[in-house]
Request: fold
Amino acid sequence: MSSVTEHTCCSDCQEFVSDDGDKCLQSNKERAKFISHTKGPHIFFDKLFHRRDTPNSNVLSSYEEATLESIRNWETTKGKRAVLCGVAYNKQKYKLKGTNYDVINMRELLGSQFCFPSSSIHILIEMDSHPHPTKRNIQEALKWLVKDNQPGDSLVFYFSGHGLRKPDFFEDELDGFNETICPVDFRTAGMITDNDINDTIVRPLKNGVKLHAIIDSCHSGTILDLQDVYSTKKKLWLDNSSPSGVYKGTSGGHAISISACEDNQLAADTSAFSDCGKQMEGAMTYTFKKALMEKPRVSYAGLLASMHKDILTAKEKGFSLRGLFHRQRLQKSQSFKRLIGFVLIKLDYKDSRDQ
Reply:
């Protein structure tokens, strides 16, 4: 292992993640040193890009082609539209039990509290009645989300599933890592990086368009690569601009990202908030929905405060984290320390209500 920073390799996904968020890979020289201490470049890149003995990801079945075509033909409605993704990773050892429930909750929230037409909300989950959340399907759905966006449009991207990190070798990230979300086929098709997401749904936003991204996954703090990060501890905005100088902004619109945790932290699946004590759901999604159901016009600062309050309430009841792959679940225990440092990342939107 590199002497620069400690890393662990998750055997479930063959991905390298950082154990210490206070350390990062600071230079190309250090990145090269990191590679040399991880069993050689060949093994490193095999693990990094999940390409071991995998089929040709460019070859699609007729069903997959038809699904992609149906997504491309979704009606581009004006005003409000949303893409909601829930990835359960069925029949895999890192399966999540609460993601479908999370998507249902988000659909109900958008419809009941924010008047999104049902026809403008598209869902990707592992059910035959919906397109599956494969890498290609998610990418195509994101293109649809921002297609022909016009002033006054309100767009939403929601993701519930696993998130990972991988080293950044182009000095594009302050902490030396790219954050990712994991489609259902990420072992064969690869992950979707923060750079991909920024290019697809942030850069095309025109003046007068607003995008909200709600990401309930591990390592999701800067998953949209936006330029400013709000610190709830310091109560101020921190500069998250790319060290390389690459522009990560919009074409005039506003992008707001609310994430389950910081880049070096883990999110949680939990049954702590369930009435029956059995229904698993994302802790971030539950507290987010609860806050907006109680006060739909809450400020961003008020939203984060409400979410933190609910987490502290759970802490007082004696719930804590217990590992389940990268996304975790809550179990009754002593400590609740590292559950979700909710992060609000925002670009070019200086509304006084948010202060």
Summary: Confidence is low (pLDDT under 50) at residues 1-55, 320-342, 346-355. The longest helix spans residues 300-316.
